[in-house]
C-alpha cells in the first residue's frame, strides 16, 4: 500500500499559536523547526512519503495540519475549525488533496469541526463534542461518512482541547488515554490508562509500530511490553501549544 502523509512547515509566527488549557510559555521557534524536520524524517525513514501542504506563514497554528481535514478512504472532509483564527488554514490542505485526486466534502456553517477531535478505528469514528467541534459539525461528518459505512459516535469532551489530546488508539483498537482529561473512559470497550500525558498520543505507522513523544518513557515501555515497536520524537515546542504527534500529519490511504 502507498503510504503518504501530509505535513505542513511551522509558521515563523508559531509562538503566537493558541493556548486554551495550558499557560502560555515561550516557544523556541528554531528548535520547533528542527523538531518538525526530525518528525518528518522519522515518517520517511518508516516508509512514509511526506507531502508538504504549502506553508501558511500568517497562520501561527498551521503546523497542526491534522485539524484541517478528516480523511476516510478516498474522501477528504475539509474541516471548519472551531477557532476563527484557524479558519484560513483549510484552503491549502483542500488544494493539495484535490490535486492528489481525493473526493472532497466540506463541513459548512454553522458546523465546526477540527480534525484533532476525530478518532477512527475499524469503521467507528469517535468525535469529541467540545470547545472546537459542535453537534452540527458532527452531524455533517456523519452524513458524509455514512455512505462509506462508518459509524460516527459523539463523545463528550470538556477537559481537553481535542479528543486526540485525551485519547488515541493502538493498532489492536485499545484506546489509550490520560485519564485526568478523559470525560468518560467507558465509551470504549478496551480503554487503557497510561502513566504519562504525552503517552496517550500515538500515530500508527504500521500494524505493529507507533510513533510517540519522547516525553513518555514509562508509557513507551508499556507499549513495548505489549509487543509494539516504538519510534519516538521530541515535540516539546509543539506540546507547549497543546499539540502532539498526531497533530503534525494527516495519513492518506491508497
Ligand atoms: C490532537 N491535537 C491536540 C490537535 N490536533 N491539534 C492541536 C492544535 C493546537 C493549537 N494550538 C490550537 O489550539 O488549535
Automatic annotation (TrEMBL):
It comes from Nocardioides furvisabuli. The lineage of its organism: Bacteria, Bacillati, Actinomycetota, Actinomycetes, Propionibacteriales. Gene3D superfamilies: L-arginine/glycine Amidinotransferase, Chain A (3.75.10.10). The gene is ddaH. InterPro entries: DDAH-like. This is N(G),N(G)-dimethylarginine dimethylaminohydrolase. Belongs to the DDAH family. Pfam families: ADI. Keywords: Hydrolase.
Amino acid at each position: 500500500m502507498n503510504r503518504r502523509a501530509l505535513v505542513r512547515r511551522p509558521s515563523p509566527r508559531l509562538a503566537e499559536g493558541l493556548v486554551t488549557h495550558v499557560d502560555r510559555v515561550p516557544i523556541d521557534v528554531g528548535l520547533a523547526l528542527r523538531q518538525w524536520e526530525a518528525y518528518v524524517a522519522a515518517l520517511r525513514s518508516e516508509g512514509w512519503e511526506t507531502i508538504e501542504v504549502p506553508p501558511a506563514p500568517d497562520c501561527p497554528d498551521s503546523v497542526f495540519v491534522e485539524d484541517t481535514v478528516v480523511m476516510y478512504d478516498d474522501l477528504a472532509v475539509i474541516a471548519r475549525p472551531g477557532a476563527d483564527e484557524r479558519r484560513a488554514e483549510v484552503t491549502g490542505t483542500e488544494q493539495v488533496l484535490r490535486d492528489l485526486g481525493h473526493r472532497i466534502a466540506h463541513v459548512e456553517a454553522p458546523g465546526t469541526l477540527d480534525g484533532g477531535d476525530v478518532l477512527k478505528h475499524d469503521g467507528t469514528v469517535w468525535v469529541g463534542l467540545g470547545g472546537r467541534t459542535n453537534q452540527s459539525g458532527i452531524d455533517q461528518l456523519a452524513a458524509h461518512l455514512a455512505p462509506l459505512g462508518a459509524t460516527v459516535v459523539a463523545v463528550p469532551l470538556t477537559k481537553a482541547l481535542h479528543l486526540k489530546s485525551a485519547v488515541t488508539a493502538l493498532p489492536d483498537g485499545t484506546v489509550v488515554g490520560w485519564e485526568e482529561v478523559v470525560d468518560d473512559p467507558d465509551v470504549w470497550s478496551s480503554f487503557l490508562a497510561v502513566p504519562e500525558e504525552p503517552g496517550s498520543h500515538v500515530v500508527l505507522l504500521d500494524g505493529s509500530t507507533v510513533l510517540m513523544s519522547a516525553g513518555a518513557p514509562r508509557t513507551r515501555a508499556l507499549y513495548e511490553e505489549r509487543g509494539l515497536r516504538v519510534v519516538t520524537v521530541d515535540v516539546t515546542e509543539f506540546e507547549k501549544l497543546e499539540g502532539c504527534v498526531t497533530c503534525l500529519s494527516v495519513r492518506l490511504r491508497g
